[in-house]
Amino acid sequence: MDKGTPLAERLWALLLTCAAAAFGAVTLMYFVLFWKLSFVDMPGNECGDSTCPRGMGWLMLFTPALGTAAVLLWKFVPEGVRRRSCLVTLVAGVVALAALWPGWRAYEWMRGPQMYVSGWQMADGSGAAKPLGVWALPDSEGGMLVRARVDGLVAFDGEGRRGWRLPAPEGAPLCGLSRATSSAVGLLVHQEGARGCGSRVTAVELKEGRRLWTRDTAGQPVAAVGGTAVLAQADAVLGLDLREGGERWRVPVAAECRVGAVDGAGAGAGERAVYVEECGGGAKARLVAVDARTGDRVWEAALPTASPLSELRVLSAEPLAVRVKESVPLGTDAVLLFDSGGRIRGKVAAAGLEGEPLVTDGLLVSAVKTGKKSGVAAYSLTDGRRAWQTGFGKERVLGVAQAAGPGEVAVITSDYWWTYLTRLGEGDGGRREEATILREMPLGSHFVFRAGPPGAYVFVNLDADDELFPTFEVMPVWGW
Q1: Strand ranges for 173-246 from DSSP E
Q2: In whole numbers, what is the pLDDT of the chain averaged over residues?
């Protein structure tokens, strides 16, 4: 630049050059990002209005606009500056590099939140080993996930790394497990030959994967309640010491009755075990609550059923919520809610409910379907009234779980192209932010998930063929 050029003109030329360089650098970055979205991320290299990778529309707008601005600004730069000023070129280069950061942050806004698979465990190829379920230990008990298959248990830490393994005994594959654990102890149910499922029960210490005790039984339903293992037998309900296996109490069951489900919750003096007796061939059923420490009966309540039950599950023990479905078409099909005295205080009609519900903070949160539209609804466990419902349109709701943030529910949905994670407020069902795209998810049709390390979620696949990753972790995308 001519040293005789006025200072104002030199500064103006410098400003134009730096602006052109900044716009040009961001244009080049956006062009590369657009190419990646078009040829790497876009399904089938073609898309419509709702199936294009998020952010592509903004890039189609900003890339040519910024490129045009860079060319126009460059045309106004004096010829002498373009050819001879090394200092201006150096300054413009620094500004161009610095402009990439705000340009990238703008792209992250266009793209919206996304997560990707950051760690996983490879499947072992044993397709015959059907998964049965998973236990999630709280952080105070190690924060592990314990995955149960018919051939044994495998533990994973909070980040999905494989821990201990406990094979099932020869000739006694697993066929069931307790709904919950207590003090890092869970109960396993075995099947031995012709004796069927429920012929043996094992208590397992889950921090180290040790068998504590094994007992031959004649019934399947089991529950871990405080320091007691509750087992259903043909003629009685037993309470055993959870860690030692010694019998604490026994409650007889009438000859014409059978126990269809057991569960429980609480601590100290409030430990309650609940079980359902079906009598008269299933025509009559009653819910019985006993003190889990002593077996003393606390209350019993007749269930509003008149035919054998095709489904019976305790979804929550405190507050008490029992899923009941009769075998006849017009029979009871609902989640029944009970108060502390055994009185029915409400119900949630099961029609429209889908998948495994989540019980949290006095609410039953479940996927729901109305016609062809999917959503998530929350119902009060006090009286059964619907607290809120959030629609997801044509997206299919795959699962719900507790979110990483306090007072939030995480919802997994999918459409034809993408899988999403949406966080909803427990109090009102409102969306906390734009849905997060889960990229390249190796997700089966049956799975559970939970919040993992800060900002991450851990998924456990439970498909019958067990060919996908048994567990994997997703984290926010920081790269492109």
Answers
A1: 174-177, 185-191, 197-205, 210-216, 222-225, 228-232, 236-241
A2: 87
